[in-house]
Amino acid sequence: MRLSNGLVAFALPALVAAQAPAIPADGVVRLEQQRIEALRTGADLDRFYSPAYRGITAAGQPESRAQIQRTPDANATRRYDTAVELHDDTAIVTGIEGDTETGERDRILRIWTKNNGVWAIVAGQRTWIGSRAGAAAPSGPLPDTPGATAFVPRTPVEEALWKSQEALMRSFSDADPASYRLYSTEQSLRLTTNGDAIARDQWLETIGKRQKGPLAIVDEVRLATYGDVGIVTLRGHEANPTRQSWIYLRQDGTWKLHLRYTTVIRQ
After folding, report:
1. Fewest CB atoms less than 10 Å from the CB: which of 11, 98, 243, 258?
2. Do 109 and 247 form a contact (C-beta atoms < 8 A)?
3. What is the domain extent for residue 44?
4. 267 residues of the chain, pLDDT tens digit each
5. Does residue 105 sit within a domain?
6. Radius of gyration, CA atoms only, the chain
7. What does the alpha-carbon distance between residue 242 and residue 186 come to, in Å, rounded to a whole number?
8. CB-side exposure of 44: number of CA atoms within 13 Å?
9. CATH number, domain at 246?
């Protein structure tokens, strides 16, 4: 199924209709299908990931390419309601992956980029929908780190991206929905630690009703940009700490939040 404005939705086993004319996102769709087959066999999985890949697991732990599971999985995840959003040489893959036998489902995020004609995954995150029986407990509060939010951008692009990030964090602490609206896309979504999706209008209402409070404490901040797609990853110092991916689109010269994924850090 093809959607407008660069979105392509797909599901196994028929990801692309044979009669449909090829469009650029089809290449990423095919790679997603090939990646599933590689998960089932445990072979040649590295080729889908950039050497610079940095992900966040469903347990909220950092993941490098070397840490990706390579054990064959004959019952590898099937896809439901998954979509590719194409922005020139960067593709944002989002959706739900689940086990049809157990009913367990995850929200997933993968960022693909094309370099020298080759697509590779540079970032990703996974968050459970609901709870898991026997899951490890949350890690518990982190030590207080005064000044943890004092990230220092190194380039003009990072300065612009971090300006939007700070404005969004302050929009919540200052109960300022107008600022959040300015620095987010109309279609922006926030994915909670339980896998729930919050649309922008709902979040604006939440901000407008809350009392002002302290600015969130974050650390382990990393920024990356790929054309008009920006990624901010960080660790949040909530009562149950989280790792987060903030995905931005550059629109009219401003970096605007498009997606935010949040995963609880577990022991």
Report:
1. 11
2. yes
3. 7-128
4. 333 334 445 444 333 333 344 457 889 999 998 998 888 888 889 999 999 999 999 999 999 999 987 777 766 656 667 899 999 999 999 999 988 777 889 999 999 999 999 999 999 999 999 989 889 999 999 886 655 557 899 999 999 999 999 999 999 999 999 999 999 999 999 999 999 999 999 999 999 999 999 999 999 999 999 999 999 999 999 999 999 999 999 999 999 999 999 999 998
5. yes
6. 18
7. 25
8. 6
9. 3.10.450.50
Does residue 25 form part of some domain?
A: yes
**CA–CA gap between residue 126 and residue 59 (Å, rounded):** 8
Which residue's structure tokens are 């610079």? 52
Same-domain status, 82 and 172: no
**The domain boundary residue, chosen from 77, 111, 128:** 128
Is residue 208 domain-shared with residue 124, that is, in the same domain?
no
Please give the model's pTM, rounded to 2 decimal places. 0.89
Q: 64 in helix, strand or coil?
A: strand
What's the domain count of the chain?
2
Inter-CA distances, 247 with 8, 133, 145, Å: 18, 30, 25
